[in-house]
Amino acid sequence: MTGAIADCERVLVGLLGQPVNSLTSLAFVVAGAFTWARSHRIVGAASIATGVGSFLFHGPMPPGAEWAHDVSLAWLLVAVAAVGTAWERWGGLPALAAIGAGLAAVPAAGDPLGVAAAVAAIASVLWRQRTPRTWAALVILGTAAIVGRLAATGGPLCVPDSLFQGHGFWHLGAAFAVALWAGVGTSVENQAMATSS
User: Fold this and answer.
1) 91-101 b/e with 16+ CB inside 10 Å = b?
2) Which residue, 1, 19, 97, 123, is most buried by CB atoms nearer than 10 A?
3) Enclosing domain of residue 13
4) Rounded to an integer, what is the distance from CA 37 to the centroid of its chain?
């Protein structure tokens, strides 16, 4: 196999340019559909968009795929940060439009925006709810992030031709963390509150 290395996985020719990273991106679609049906529609829609954007970026890699990847991920983080706040209604299409326009104008801002949005999302969630499911979701997210960094290109766990890809592990962990926080936990807590009323 020959080809460039990106996110530690070798890029191949075809629909699944990075097979592991592109297929694990679809975990966000599953988590988003679950979240949409169970609790937060905006977070669900943003998670689905993140899965599609990530699949395009790691799979067929058409023009604009990096923009779609960065915009959708930033939107998901902003949507999570806005849940339960006075800004919640702005976390939907207004946020998506602003992020999309901003990254179209300044594409290099994708990574800094993603970091800032991640910090804002975590701080916002912890400010409003420190439940066991929130902590569990953050532990899963943190573990996935650490493994993802250690297995990044040039990292100690990077093996470009392996079926285990740290970036793919990050996709799975982040998607599961979103579903746990926004979907499963909310539904269980709502049932418990309804039963105790």
Assistant:
1) bbeebbeebbe
2) 19
3) 5-192
4) 18
Asked whether residue 197 is domain-assigned, the answer is no
- Asked if the structure places residue 123 within a domain, the reply is yes
CB within 8 Å of 126: residues ≥ 6 apart: 134, 138
Residue 138, token pair as written in the block: 């953050």
pTM for this model (two decimals) = 0.90
Per-10-residue mean pLDDT of the chain, 197 residues long, equals 84 94 98 93 97 98 97 98 92 97 97 95 92 95 97 96 96 97 57 37
For 6, the enclosing helix (H) or strand (E) is strand 5-6
Q: Is residue 164 part of a domain?
A: yes
The CB-side HSE value for 42 (13 A sphere, CA atoms) comes to 20
Q: Return all residues near 195 (Cβ < 8 A) that are at least 6 apart.
A: none
Q: Which residue has the tokens 């994708």?
A: 110
Number of domains the chain contains? 1
For residues 166 and 158, the answer to whether their CB atoms sit within 8 Å is: yes
- Alpha-carbon span 57 to 61, nearest angstrom: 5
Do residues 36 and 42 make contact, with C-beta atoms less than 8 angstroms apart? no
Place of tokens 């969630």: 125
